[in-house]
Design brief:
This protein is an alpha/beta fold. It has 9 helices and 7 strands. Strand 4, helix 4 and strand 5 form a beta-alpha-beta unit.
Length: 264
């Protein structure tokens, strides 16, 4: 129970990686507030966890009033805020010529401005509490270019730099900020994206995933729960001297190929 006594806020906590992190945090003793835009998804995830361990807050990270509501809900539930996980995100496909200004702005708003807003709101409470741990979920796509992903790659690269900026500026307040960069992870969002690509390539998802992972040393994409352990480590005291770190969890993709760039 290495997170016993800690209180965490997880954005995008109703599905995928966010839900998996919430489950792991609860298993390790934390109390969590999970947020997202879809109330029914939040409630479905919360129903699988002990009632006293979780609270939900339907909210949008692109709305600053909603961000304040997330923080207030967490504080009311747990009395403090020890850990913030910025996981809410959207995917976007297209080159610069294919991407509309609306899609570009929406991607940046959710993937980059959202974490900016949650950290801006959470950090004063962490300072008052004597410190905290912020975990941002970026992507291998923030470190390597991927075809037809100009908005997604740019937003995730920005999140990596934002993470390190926060680590630099607030380390003296005992606030640590690290970023996790998953490779391909079989979430609902990932399957939607891959489904569109499979259709464009006149194939099915399973065949595309097999091709997608053929150059990855572990020969597969990850499952959402495989992100939970590293986030629990970053949330807990075992990582007390780690900040500004960029942790890549990609099955080895980065050492051989950028998780699909060879498919261009």
């Amino acid at each position: 129970m290495k997170l016993s006594g800690k209180v965490a806020l997880i954005t995008g906590g109703g599905t995928g990686i966010g839900a998996a992190i919430a489950r792991r945090f609860v298993e390790d003793g934390a109390r969590v507030c999970i947020t997202g835009r879809r109330k029914e998804k939040l409630e479905a995830t919360a129903s699988t966890l002990p009632e006293s361990s979780v609270v939900t807050c339907a909210a949008d990270v692109t709305n600053f009033d909603d961000v304040a509501k997330m923080i207030e809900t967490t504080l009311s539930f747990g009395g403090k805020l020890d850990v913030l996980v910025n996981n809410a995100a959207m995917d976007s496909n297209g080159s610069i010529l294919e991407t509309s200004m609306e899609d570009w702005r929406n991607t940046l708003e959710i993937n980059l401005t959202g974490p900016f807003a949650t950290m801006k709101t959470a950090i004063p409470h962490m300072i008052e509490n004597g410190g905290g741990s912020i975990i941002n979920i970026a992507s291998l796509a923030g470190l390597r270019c991927m075809p037809r992903s100009v908005g997604y790659c740019s937003s995730k690269a920005g999140l990596i730099m934002l993470t390190q900026q926060i680590a630099l500026e607030y380390g003296s307040h005992n606030i640590r900020c690290n970023v996790v960069c998953p490779g391909a992870t079989r979430t609902e969002m990932f399957e939607e994206s891959v489904g569109k690509l499979a259709k464009d390539m006149a194939t099915d998802i399973e065949s595309l995933l097999k091709r997608f992972s053929s150059n990855i040393p572990l020969k597969r994409v990850s499952k959402p729960n495989e992100m939970g352990g590293i986030c629990s480590f970053l949330a807990g005291d075992d990582s007390s001297f780690m900040t500004g770190a960029v942790l890549v969890l990609d099955g080895g993709a980065a050492i051989v190929d950028v998780s699909g760039a060879s498919m261009n």
